[in-house]
Amino acid sequence: MTFKNIIFNREGSLATIIMNRPDSYNALDLSMSGEIVTALEVCRKEREIRAVILTGKGRAFCSGGDIKYFERYAGSDPGEPVRRLLEPLHRIVLDIRRMPKPVLAAINGAVGGAGMSLAFSCDLRIASQAAKFKQAYTSLGLVPDGGWSLWAGLLAGFGRASEMIFSDPVYDAHQAKDMGLVHRVTGPDQLMEEAYRWAGQMAAGPTRSFAVAKAGLNSAFLHLLEHQLETERQGVLSSAYTDDYQEGLKAFKAKRKPVFRGS
Fold first, then answer.
1. Banded pLDDT at 223 (limits 50, 70, 90)
2. pLDDT at 75
3. Which CATH number fits domain 6-189: 3.90.226.10, 3.40.50.300, 3.30.420.360, 3.40.120.10?
4. CB burial string 108-136: b at 16+ within 10 A, e below
5. Are the beta carbons of 40 and 95 closer than 8 angstroms?
6. Rounded (10°) CA dihedral 202, 203, 205, 210
7. What global pTM score does this model have?
């Protein structure tokens, strides 16, 4: 099986999915999203794979949706790229949650927007000290998607989630750990070594028990996630047609601060 936008490695009972668009900070486009869906399907079906690691190539884990793709439709139908990208993103999030095996996010660098949603949907998260976390949606005039508003509230609490929405600060890895967004922080050079060690421990564990226990967690929260994904889909589509979103795109391209007018 050949991939162009991800690297899919298998080593014994471990599988690693590496987002491989480093020049765009591993921004999600249709091609990479589709390949992640395919790789997750392989991980789900093959019994020999007992744990999965998701990480990024280069300086970023995943910066979110590909803004260049959004810009292409800005003057015609700004909702079109949102519609196209949300479907595979939501599929990835649900596939990770429904995966009957542990999925570990190894957050190697910058993570924002939908990249946070991907990391939050994983069962466990380990971050490099070089990692930076930014909500990013509202700074562009959009709203969170990929279950972000559920994950952030569950992991960091309602107050912190509100702070991320209204102020959109950048958090370092240690702040993210203190907030409950990640479980462990390690040095950049030790990240993957620690990720493989941790994933290996899980792969050597009672994976049938893990699968049933994960299904139990899903039973409590998955209906909330499915509802939230649809709520967010409608919200993102609505915000895509606002003047503020157009201003956010222009400001991002010009590398200036946006001037939002609430319209």
1. very high
2. 65
3. 3.90.226.10
4. bbbbbbbbbbbbbbbbbbbbbebbbbbbb
5. yes
6. 70
7. 0.94
